[in-house]
Amino acid sequence: MKRILVKRFLSLILSLCMILGGNLVGGMDVLAASVEPTENTTDSALVDSFEENSEDAFLAGTAEEATLESKVSDEVAEQESEDMILETNSEEEVFNANSLEGKTEESLVELEEEIDLDSENEASPNAESLAEDGTSDEVVPYSTENSARAYTTSTTGNFSNLVIFVDFADTSHDHSNISTFNNNCHVNHPDKVFEFFDGSEAKPRGFRQYLYNISYGALQVMNIFPQYDASTGKFTPYKLKYNAEHYYSQNTDSEMIAEIIAQLNASGGVGVDLHLSKNENIVDNMTIVVACDDAEGNANKHFYGHKATYRGDEQVDGNLVRDYNLVTEGGVFMGSNQSGVLVHEFLHTLGYQDLYVNGGGATPVGMWDIMASADYRMKYPLAYFRSHYTKWFSIPEVTTSQKGYSIYAASAATAATKDRQAVILKTAYSDTEFFVLEYRRKGAYGSEDYDANVPGSGLIIYRINTNAYRNYDGAPWQAYVFRPGDSYAIGSDGKKYEQAQINPLMNGSFFSAETNRTSYGTSDATKSLEDGAITYSDGMNSGIVIENIGSAAGDQITFDITFTDSSNGAYWTTVSSQDTQGASGIDSYMDSDGTIYYLQDRTNGIYLYRYQSTGWSQVGSGLSKESGAYGYQLVQYNGSPYIAYGVSNSAAKLYRWNGSGWEKVYATAGVANELDVTSDSSGVYLAYSNGDMGNGNSEVRVCKYAAGGGTELGVVAKSSQYACNPSIAVGDGRIVVLYKESFNNGMYVKQYNNGSWNLVGNQNLKANNGIIKLHKGKAYLLKNGESFGVNDSYLYMYDFASSSGNWTKAAEAAYANESIPEVDICFHGDAPHIVYLGGKSNQVYVKYIGDGGWEQLGTPVASEYVSGLRGYSYNGEIYLTYMANSAKKIYIKSHESQTTGGVGGGTTDPGGNTGGGTTNPGGSTGGGTTDPGGNTGGGTTNPGGNTGGGTTDPGGNTGGGTTNPGGSTGEGTKPSTTKNGWVYENGQRYFYENGVKAASKEAFVDDYWRWFDADGTMAVSKDVYQMSNGGKWVRYDSSGRMIKGWNSTNQGSYYFDLTTGAMAKGVKEIGGKYYYFSKTTGIKAEFSSKEVPLDGDWYWFDVDGTVAVSKDVYQWSNGGKWVRYDANGRMVKGWENTSRGTYYFDPITGAMAKGVKEIDGKFYYFYKVTGVKAEFSGQETFVDDYWRWFDADGTVAVSKDVYQWSSGGKWVRYDASGGMVKGWDHTFWGSYYFDLTTGAMAKGLCYIDGRWYYFDQNTGILRW
Question: First vs last Cα of the chain: how many Å apart?
């Protein structure tokens, strides 16, 4: 500490000497300059001139401004070449500080500790060079005491940024030929490095300070400068082996980075934690600043700013280098970009994408985001991206009309209000596009304010397209800011996109009372972008209207939101959605009661979920994934879910959920290269291909699993043309398989008849692919184009009852004229509805046959690439299920369909023969196992006879072993007299397990947990208290099934545990948010933005109705206070010890103590920013702008005189706030004077302000 004191004392003396015009020995003025750098007034004047001129240009919307905004500059524009894109990491690494909302005080503790360290290094106030407010004007902060460590500008942080300066072999740093507006070479002006990289509260545009501010303290970058020598105040760049041209010509930075790492290690490494934000040993980020000129004086000849990923194995202090930003000296230090380009590139490391357009010409976002336009006048990223990429706050979603909605300006939002600076608007039209309203307020001209060069103050309206990766590649835009006067242009793909013109953006994209633009949007469905509609990327009018937009003069702006269905009922309804946690594939089926089951293929297993009106629930445990497994498919048979999948170079497997786990029930006899699965009441059927495509020899085979076991149904086809792509359908007693011969694209359908496979109809069909379905005596074949590049897709039908034996088109026209990656067909009544994803349009459609041919049901269901697409008909509506591949979310959507009629032909022929298996009492069917008393093709009930696949047949036989009272089973099973399953007795239904009636217990029956009372009756629409799991209330619905998840009733909302079914009471975490449920009734508490006493404790409810848990909340009551809520959501009162320090909260109001606080007759001091108790003992310490005295017990001196032995002994007085008294102090007892620097009480003869005074030698009271 003495060494630092001497250094600071010398700094003070040297500064005084320089003021007086004198210089000490040569070289000591370098020390003074490095300790206290001065600002270049000429540069400041140039900056102000540039700002004024460019401001006028921006407002005028000139062509020069369009060029500047679109391209920024050749030196720093992110024109990523293909080589740099190849080098970029394909996986986005999204930074999340995981800080609790409202915890800004705790996050500031680290800054408090930094200040404390600085003050503790001062021996006494005599040497203190602080200004009156306790701050310092020094740009360069103190260095660490450990000389082995690299120089850092802070001792704390949660994200490391290793900063490296690089010279090439031909670098001169002779910038005499460069006439840029701000020449601040980092070698010749090291002070600018700290100003641009760090900044301060006084210079908030600095890289570190800017990120700290816009993240509300969540992101604290620790810049590390291993090349800075604090003793000389100089940076020494690494000198690379070759000229700049050598490294640039390689189109990769790899050789340069390898040399940098080698020089870092040769100099002894860094000695500072390089991976503060990562668990693994990887440097958080490296920023490389390359020299901007060569020996010929060419500035910015070679390099441009970019972010990329290094793949080398070299390490720095045991850490790999991966993410890095490369910027040029010219871009940062010799132009208008400064910290702007540093932030722009660094935000790429955090996952942000470019919002400008490569090559210019369009300005979808422009001056509204630093990722579209970066210079020294820092601006905010759009609120959506700060919320989405870095999770610094949440944005509420609104789907219904609102009056008087208000949000804060980005520049006015605080840690307490950060979740109220934007709002997301969604309609049912799209899952992937939505609109955001955000309030931006233009900063003061010539100030350090952010947003000083945005077009204006007011509400901005923009669209987000989650399917678009960025704006850089052109339309469709990831983000587009609406502006009156824009129009459409036709893109290279033939689609229309917004021109994104810059003049309308600069002049009209902000709305407020001051601009007289107080509304935007229209409810008229015929209106488009040119008419002022808020539109989707495809031009569809959202019907959203924003009106009554208020003044932009304050911190908040108000407006009305109106939703209108401009589709006239054509939108698809989103029934539900679920996050799959990164599933790679899904499959689904719908039960007869409308329950939807979902299979999710995740990296750690296969999981089954169920959706009902009460919500989502997981069915049992996951199925372990097998190495080489593919094509997981889900079907149902005999009330149980089954999962089938193939295994590379191995047999296909079939698993059943038995109520407690997954059990393997069957494996195919041969290797399965491809697999398709279906089921009906007779069993599960698997069609698979095997063989060698290289020589063309292949087979398509089918097997069946039923209650009695598995059966191979033989070879469907054996071909030298490589038979593949099997699709299987069962129904009406028939089994049919569609397959393709790959070498000629021929499509063939065969039916199983008495152990053989026979062609169905006259076939001359060709297609790239197809599927087949059966419905009421007809086969339906969906096929796409006949060859590569031919995309006409048709629906063909075959009527088994017809004598023509021909396949005919269901409609003359094609239902689609594009490639079809996903397709399904369902039957609504008898009307086929085709569900498909268009490969070119990237939209999901549902088509049916109307009076004029194919017609579209509603609007497109989705506008993105999906997988696992399935269609179902239930209760008068068409239901679709799919996974959105971009968001990895499962969606269930529905739409009413009035079309239920069939497409002609195909009636059953009673008393005679049918083409394959429709019930024919007393006769035979054309395809099935011989069954005395009447044959069926595959399992339809046939009274008095047998079925081919196991359906109960009273008085007869079954083909697959189901109990058959009064008769026999197809495999010789004897009837059992032991009661099992559901049994009706005396008009009541009971459940038996091995002859024992279920009573006073919970049992898993028919895929659900159910409760059986003491008399054996099942609990229905009833709450039951159970002693398990420590005691719990469980609710059972009208079908007796345990309710899980959310449950809304007339009394209110409830929540039941997804595993145990326990009713939530008290505070419950659900989906990462906390809710409060009455401890008595379990009803969810419905409060918003208020503190409420519940069940004997105080709780805080945020604006979205969630409860504050482990969180500090600022409240305006009691003159404003910070209140803490514990892990159970209860208000903290009294003392609290944490890893951050000790706090105290008022026993009545819960207000966090700050400053001096009297507790139990003693005074303690708590930091004014963080509320942490100051922990000092028997010493004087500079805290919160004042010197204070702490007694031996840690209490602070308040209204008290203290004798100190320092400075030869002195009496010091501390006032009612605990601060050291300085200057005159007039009291009841008399007048005193205390030294303005040391605080020492004056005694004896003293000269003050030009006069002599005498103070009593004992008491210090003024005598004359």
Answer: 42
* Tokens read off for 375: 């210079």
Q: How far is CA 1213 from CA 215, 985, 1239, in A?
A: 41, 92, 7
pLDDT tens sequence across 168-189: 988 877 655 554 434 567 667 7
Q: Give yes or no for a contact between 992 and 981, defined as CB atoms under 8 angstroms apart.
A: yes
Distance CA(958)–CA(511), nearest Å, equals 74
Give the whole-angstrom CA distance, residue 1249 versus residue 1257: 20
Instruction: State the residue for tokens 């071909």.
Output: 719
Q: What is the pLDDT of residue 140?
A: 32
C-alpha–C-alpha distance, residues 1093 and 1124, integer Å:
15
Beta strands 458-465 and 479-481: pairing type? antiparallel
Q: How many CB atoms lie within 10 A of CB 30?
A: 13
Average pLDDT over residues 259-284: 89
Residue 84 phi, psi dihedral angles, 5° rounding: -70, -35
Token pair for 969: 């089973």
Helix (H) or strand (E) segment spanning residue 105: helix 104-107
pLDDT at 1220 over 80: yes
The DSSP bridge pattern shows strands 1090-1094 and 1073-1077 to be: unpaired
Of the candidates 256, 254, 252, the residue with the CA atom closest to the CA atom of residue 243: 256
**Nearest-CA neighbor of 1191 among 1205, 1206, 1180?**
1180
User: Quick one: DSSP state of residue 139?
Assistant: S
CB atoms within 10 A of CB 649: 10
Q: Distance (Å, rounded) from C-alpha 258 to C-alpha 245?
A: 17
> From residue 1045, how far is each of 615, 617, 973, 1058 by CA, in Å?
6, 7, 42, 6
Supply the Cα-derived Rg of the chain in whole angstroms: 38
Backbone angles phi, psi at 311, to 5 degrees: -115, 5
E strands in 299-401: 306-309, 315-316, 319-320, 323-328, 397-398
Residue 789 CA: distances (Å) to CA of 740, 743, 747, 785:
18, 16, 17, 8
Helix (H) or strand (E) holding 4: helix 2-19
- Nearest by Cα to 253 from 328, 343, 177, 145: 328
Q: Token digits for 728?
A: 């299987």
Q: Kindly report the number of other CB atoms within 10 A of residue 1227's CB atom.
A: 9
Q: What is the pLDDT of residues 355-386, one digit of tens each?
A: 999 988 899 999 999 999 988 889 999 999 99
What band does 984 get if pLDDT is binned at 50, 70 and 90? low
DSSP string, 230-267: TTTTEE-PEEPSS-HHHHHTTTSSHHHHHHHHHHHHHT
Query: What number of H helices and E strands is found in the chain?
Result: 15, 78
Contact in structure between 733 and 937 (CB atoms under 8 Å): yes
Q: d(Cα 313, Cα 709) in Å, to the nearest integer? A: 55
CA quadruple 490, 493, 498, 499: dihedral sign: negative
For the stretch 618-671, pLDDT in tens is 998 899 999 999 999 999 999 999 999 999 889 999 999 999 999 999 999 889
Q: Where are the beta strands (DSSP E) in 580-708?
A: 585-590, 596-602, 605-612, 615-618, 629-637, 640-647, 651-657, 662-671, 674-680, 683-691, 698-706
Question: What is the number of other CB atoms lying within 10 angstroms of the CB of residue 118?
Answer: 16
Average confidence (pLDDT) over 1152-1166 = 91
DSSP code per residue over 621-650? SPBPPPTTEEEEEEEEETTEEEEEEEETTS
8 A C-beta contact, residue 157 and residue 284: no
Instruction: Answer yes or no: are the C-beta atoms of 762 and 719 closer than 8 Å.
Output: no
CA atoms within 13 A on the CB side of 366: 33
Q: Cis ω on the peptide bond leading into residue 476 (within 30° of 0)?
A: yes
